[in-house]
Amino acid sequence: MNLVPEKNSDFSTTEYWDSFFTKRKTTFEWYGNYDNLKRLLTKYISAKDIILMSGCGNSDLSLNLYSDGFINMTSVDNSEVVIANMNNKHKTKYPGLVYEVEDILNTKYADERFSAVIDKGTLDALMPDGEVESLTRAMKMFNEIKRILKFGGRYICVSLLQYHIAQFIFSYFSENGWIIRVCQCTEVEDSPDFNGQPVFMVVCTKVNKIPGANPVLEWNPDGLTNERLDSINDLLEIVIDTQKSVSMCFDLTKCQMEDMSNNYRFEINCSQTKKPRYTIMIVESPTEKNPNKMTFAAFIVPHGREHEWLFSSEEGQDILRRNCNVDRLAIISMHRGQIYKDLKQVQQELSRLMLKIAPQGVIKRGETILFLSLEQQLGVRKIIMENKSEHSGNFVIEEVDGQNNETFRRLVFLNMPHIIQSETKLLIENEKIKIDYSHFLSDYIPYLGLGVGIIANQLDKVPKILLIGLGGGILTNLLLNAYENATILALEIDPIVYEIAKKAFGLIENSRLEVEICDGLEYLCNAVKNNDKYDVVIYDVDVKDPTLGLSGPPKAFLEQDVLNNVKSLIGEDGLFLLNFVCRASDVKNEILNVLKNNFKQLTSLKIPEDINRVLLARNSDKTFDADLLEQTAAYMNNCTKSNPLIACDVIDISALKENIEDI
């Protein structure tokens, strides 16, 4: 029995519905049954209300309301077939139930006859599209509802809120000065026959229009919390985002994500601030894809530790999933600037969402969602400074508790909030905070130091180093502590960053270090004109645009004229070292080819569990072979062990050889 019309516009015709209800005599519930809607619906009507049920069809909604005490109700439909069926069905047992044939676009009822009009799918049927014919029908219905509703009465519309419908209903009633509240019918989404399309209840309250007043627009996501919005566009945006998120959760539950391989990432915003509150990373087994068999758990990352390899890299995330022994793991990260009470509050806040993204078998088996974490506390993230840089934008300096009661201080630029710009570990000695100069966020820092050591280990050399990109000063401190005879000119374009390095990261300032606030490109050009020479030129400068696939160095520093300047400064005997960070393989290959064409020797040192690479280049025939690098590492470790501020090895010599990459 085919009940689907040939075209959407048939939904608005009486002939279609007469045929529909002739063929289908059993109850048909559009957009959920009474149990799905009762909590919200009964919040906006009372037993004293005189109710009009518009486009009632053969739904049991009128019967259910009548049975719950809402007896002053008239149910109407323009299909004579369905009204005759409903009267025959209920006239004996429920004589007070009134069913009448009426066209909701033009009824016989008196002005202000009703205190509530309920519309469950009628508007959607009358507006299958945004064409003039549909808009005209909807306008007539709204005008009729406005006429027959009492002052203070409510038009309650249950709808899928397709964009053309949402835009029209919001515009019409806001222009008439009515109060508009949009509620999400979450119980519909929890029903076993939910099809992935969220249902909304739009409650429009008839009040007098106040000239010049802003429209009252509210969003109610849970039936409890009302959020006041500034514009129709804001309300439309929330509806669209809700539709996308509900659809995504439905697809996750059914394991039918089209663009998903084995992981998927999305953010949950704070309802008050509109800023990200949680990041959810879904990690799945590459083998088990049956939604009825998959196991599931949620893992809460301790506050401030989301940058760690285990939680931020695909490999680490899959190891975490396997350690949790589940087929799908939701890895939950918290955001800076948000307030979290404790683990219990986070679990309560996210429990409903976790149910919505769990494979459907978890719900069918009646399992509760398992929340896991490394510890019983949320973790501590304390922001000690917030400011804005002219060059780098907004930034924070924060202190985060790690494992073993360790505390780390970090610089993070908020245009790239998931990337730590600089990090140091804090020590407490005699109740005073000190910098741990032996701590490095990434091995790329000691590996850059290793490159400098090739020069420093030559007996007749007093290394003269040009460092472009001071940052937090972590690399500078290492070079000063490791090589007592080295002199450094560090260039930094941002004066605020220089102040941060001094005040927050323990920059060692002595006669062997000079810091100049300038543009590195301009300095390179002027240095060549002045016939300056350096033993080592280091690029440790980042890219401010996170969308380019290249995080450092900026392409401007790799232009041919700039590389000519670098070659002139280091001559045949000097070294060129780069902290190279590139995610886009085509960009990576392009840059490596440029460097190979400019330097006789080019070697890459990979950083395990990191995307960074340290590139070593020079224009002599001397290679960067494993023996040279291992001998230099031993020399460097001896230097750092003898310095009381470090007092330990900084390079694992046993792993060095396998980290040398062919280019």
Automatic annotation (TrEMBL):
Gene Ontology MF annotations: methyltransferase activity
Keywords: Methyltransferase, Multifunctional enzyme, Transferase
Keyword Cell inner membrane: no
Coiled-coil regions listed: none
Record-annotated Methyltransferase domain positions: 52-158
Gene Ontology terms: biological process: methylation
Gene3D superfamilies noted in UniProt: Vaccinia Virus protein VP39 (3.40.50.150)
Pfam families, A to Z: Methyltransf_31, Spermine_synth
Keyword Transferase included in the entry's annotation: yes
Family to which this protein belongs: Belongs to the methyltransferase superfamily.
PANTHER family: EEF1A LYSINE AND N-TERMINAL METHYLTRANSFERASE (PTHR12176:SF78), SAM-DEPENDENT METHYLTRANSFERASE SUPERFAMILY PROTEIN (PTHR12176)
Name of the protein this chain belongs to: Methyltransferase domain-containing protein
The species this protein was found in: Aphis glycines (Soybean aphid)
